[in-house]
Amino acid sequence: MKKLLSLFIFIILVYSVYYDIKIGTLPTVSAVSANSPIQQAEAPVKKDPDQPAIKEVRVNAGDTVLTIVEQLHNGPIPVSIDQLIKDFTELNNGIKPEAIQIGKVYSFPVYP
Questions:
Q1: Which residues contact 51 (CB under 8 A, 6 or more apart)?
Q2: For the chain, which residues score pLDDT lower than 70?
């Protein structure tokens, strides 16, 4: 009986690893949202020379603060993620990056 139970557990383990590698357990971005351009509300605005420029963007499904800012820069961001989070929170009256909602417009920093 122990051998049968061990075999059953082994089969479940192998199937779980196969499923995780082949299909994955993380949600993927749909082709529509991955290929759709970000919706910008206005041109960049720069208020203070020490502050980054600002772009207002409507959030689509699957977007994160990091992916939106990377799209605005056409590549990796030139500052640390901690600095990006701090700037985003300041620009949006204390809203945390984890709390953004689909369809709402937020201000995003654009670095030189």
A1: 87, 109
A2: 25-51
